[in-house]
Amino acid sequence: MLSLLRAPQAAFAALVVVLSAAALHLEAGHLSVPRAAVVPALDPMRYSGTWFEVARVPSGAMRRCAADVTATYGPRPGGGFEVVNRCMRRDGTVDVVRGEARPREGDRTGARLEVNFLPQILRRLPLGWAEQWIVAVDPDYRVAIISDSDRSELRVLSRVPELDADRLLPLMAMLRAQGYAVDRLVRTPQAAAGERPQRVVNVTT
Fold first, then answer.
1. CATH classification of 31-163+180-193 is 2.40.128.20, yes or no?
2. What sign for the dihedral angle of Cα 37, 66, 54, 201?
3. What are the tens digits of pLDDT across the range 155-179?
C-alpha cells in the first residue's frame, strides 16, 4: 500500500477525508486509548526516543516548520522528559529547540504533560508552559497522537518516517469519534522517507 508520505499534499488531504468517513464503521480496538482525553497510563521509558511527525494540524510555533519534524524525548531523573524538537524551515535552515516536559501536577496517568522551551533559568517561573497531552499510543509504542485539552493541537507521530494508510484508518476513526478536526491534518514531508517538499503549504514565518 502506498505510504501517505509519498502522496502529494492534495492526495493526502483527499485520503484523510475518505479514510475518515470509512473509519466511522471500524473499531480502533488495537489502540490503548479510552474515550477519556488521554491514555490511562504512559510508560515513560517506552515513550522515550525519537518520533517522526507524520501529520499535524498547523498551529502555534510549529507553523514555522516545513519538513523533517522530529521530537526526541529522554527521561529526566526526577520525572518527566528532556525534549529536543527539530525541523527544517521553509528557507532550508534547520531549527532545533530544547526544553522539558513534566507531568501535570496531580495527574496520575503521566500523559498530561506540560512543555516549556524557554531558557532553563526561566522555567522556574510560572510562564512558558504549554499543554501536551498524549491522547493515543499503540501497544507497541510505534504510533502516538498528541494534542491538548481543547483539541486545538493535533500531531500524528510515528517511530518511522512513513505511516501506511492501513494504519491511518483506525486512527482517523478514533480521532473523529473524539471530536478532532481530522480534515485539517497536513502531511509532514520527511527526508528520511526519501522526500523533500517541492512546495510548502500551510506554513507561515
1. yes
2. positive
3. 999 999 988 878 878 888 888 888 8
